[in-house]
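Incident log, structure service

09:12 report received: a user says their structure output differs between two submissions of the same chain.
09:20 pulled the input from the user's history:
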Amino acid sequence: MTAPVASPVPPSLAVVVPMYNEQEEAERCARLVCAALDAEPGRTALVVVDDGSRDATGSILARLALDLPRLAVVTHASNRGYGAALKTGTARAAADGYEYVLFMDSDLTNDPTLIPLFRARMQEGYDVIKASRFAPGGGVEGVPLWRRAVSATGNAVARVLYRLPVRDCTNGFRAVRTSVLRGMALSERGFPAIMEELYQARYLARRFCEIPYTLTARSGSQRPSSFSYRPGVFVSYLKYPLRAFFGLRPPHLRDGRGEEV
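09:34 re-ran on a clean worker, output below:
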């Protein structure tokens, strides 16, 4: 793997946040992320994908878009799932010419104050930058011990199978070069899209790194997370590192020129 070469100019960045029925946190999330981006040099934006919300999320975002110049809102007429929201946000970021996409959750368990750390790694030329609970300086707060144990075990297994320098494979707080994302052929609707993305990035990206990150739990006033710990979920997550381990190459990947690789 070649050493990254730092760019003198900060790359442009679009933060993509999927939202579904997040009326309690929509405004706070958008304002805090935009405030963090205001402090960043260069060209930045926040793209919120309203994934068919049935509460007041859509109207809140429409009002905020008039007040926050960096905010762009894209709306799905019906709920299409986390994976589809990521693809929609990526397509908007690519159409607007942003070089990187940083995915964040709307519940602010992903800290916007870490954006400068991501930006520094972008400037060094990394293609995939993952926030990691398991890197030195990372951690978990407010999460039951059994969930922490399950996550740590699952990520340790995934790291071995992927054979990538990534300790926190399942973490959705990550930045990816837009050209890499546009080369992917993603099909997952739900949270396993994170693992499918990393599986395909293994064949499209050259440089991976992590930044330390402390995961916090959602507050009691927020809608509970839709993530499930059912056995079927683990199977849907594990199939992608297993495919990588056995050398099963994803079909229909494309390079920066749009040609299949």
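09:41 both user submissions now match this output. Likely a transient worker issue. Closing.
09:42 reviewer note: The longest helix spans residues 145-162. Helices lie at 26-38, 57-65, 82-95, 115-123, 145-162, 178-182, 193-204, 231-245.
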